[in-house]
Design goal:
about 350 residues, alpha/beta, Rossmann fold, nine-stranded mixed beta sheet, two-stranded antiparallel ribbon
Length: about 350
């Protein structure tokens, strides 16, 4: 199994570089296949903000699939906001119109059973198409540490179903097990990670923009994530999804094509070492907590609406820390960067 790491320093050259590389994966598809392209459309952010998959990457994928006579659709289920507005703001709607490709929200759940978790609602169209192309963004993630190929398929879970899973899972380790289950159910034919420009620090929406200069491809998302960790000098065991993948034996023998390496500043919530099971309750109690900035908050209430624990009261500008499960969804969805992550004295 091969992982390809393509050096690419700008989105002006990204479309052609990626199209040239995709030729090597043409035998994965047949003329007439219906292919669902699943980008990261987290929220209504401009492409240059490095929160979502860049439209230049989506353009390369659509152009390639159209040229080999596939029937293509683009779909995702964003964390918050109106889907059509998100498609417009991210530039993905324009690219889809350019190729006459439908773009729609994944909002038709059907229950599926994973290896660890049962009755995971995933959009039924995921299982009706012939192939899936998973097009992720290289970013940090304050809960999972990194969001790469495996985490991106969580977007196949419709809408508010996502918040409920944070409550049901409870811990980061359990949530990682869910994400691995979902990725195994979705079974992307091809995984692509847009790392031309990504995010470090306290991602996935309010971190620091960084030019990583890479586009990564593989038929195996678990191994792709593992390789990216190694090439960024990140210990794979502190990335919850990668650790779960290793424990399940999902990282396969592989060759890496490309000499790309980089560094990434991880979130302040990152564990120094993998937390043993006996200490997870204590570690969770000591983990950073979200705090609302009164000066930055515009009272849009997105954090309040999306908090799975119903711990946020914007009228009072308070968070009930007895309810808070430290999933950091509030930090992720806040469009103003008004949620910081701080250590509290109990």
């Amino acid at each position: 199994m091969k992982v390809s790491l393509l050096r690419c320093d700008s989105y002006e050259e990204a479309t052609q570089i990626l199209k040239n590389a995709l030729i090597n994966f043409a035998d994965l598809f047949r003329p007439g296949d219906t292919v669902l392209v699943k980008p990261n459309m987290l929220s209504a952010r401009r492409p240059e903000e490095a929160v979502t998959t860049h439209p230049a990457i989506v353009r390369a994928v659509l152009s390639f699939l159209k040229e080999i006579k596939c029937s293509v659709v683009v779909a995702d289920s964003p964390a918050s906001g109106n889907f059509q507005r998100i498609a417009e703001k991210t530039g993905i709607k324009d690219v889809c119109e350019e190729f006459n490709v439908p773009v729609f929200e994944l909002d038709q759940p059907v229950p599926m059973n994973g290896e660890v978790y049962k009755k995971i609602n995933i959009d039924k169209r995921i299982f009706e198409v012939d192939k899936i192309v998973n097009v992720a963004k290289l970013k940090t993630h304050s809960q999972m540490v990194l969001t790469l190929a495996v985490k991106n398929t969580f977007g196949c879970v419709p809408g508010l179903e996502k918040s409920g899973w944070h409550m049901r899972c409870g811990t980061n380790e359990n949530f990682a097990a869910l994400l691995v289950d979902i990725h195994k159910l979705v079974k992307p034919t091809l995984n692509i990670v847009d790392g031309v420009v990504g995010m470090e620090g306290n991602g996935p929406a309010n971190g620091k923009i960084k030019r990583f200069g890479v586009i990564a491809l593989s038929t195996d998302g678990f191994t792709l994530d593992f390789v990216l960790c190694k090439r960024m000098n990140v210990e794979p065991l502190i990335i919850y999804t990668v650790r779960e993948s290793l424990e399940r034996g999902l990282i396969v023998d592989h060759d890496v094509e490309g000499e790309w390496t980089s560094r990434i500043e991880l979130p302040i919530t990152t564990p120094v070492l993998p937390v043993p099971e006996a200490l997870r309750s204590l570690a969770r109690r000591l983990a950073r907590s979200p705090r609302i900035s009164r000066t930055k908050c515009v009272r849009c209430r997105i954090c309040e609406e999306r908090c799975p624990a119903k711990a946020i009261n914007i009228d009072k500008m308070k968070i009930d820390y007895e309810k808070c499960i430290k999933c950091y969804v509030c930090h992720e969805v806040c469009p103003q960067g008004a949620i910081s992550l701080v250590r509290r004295i109990f």
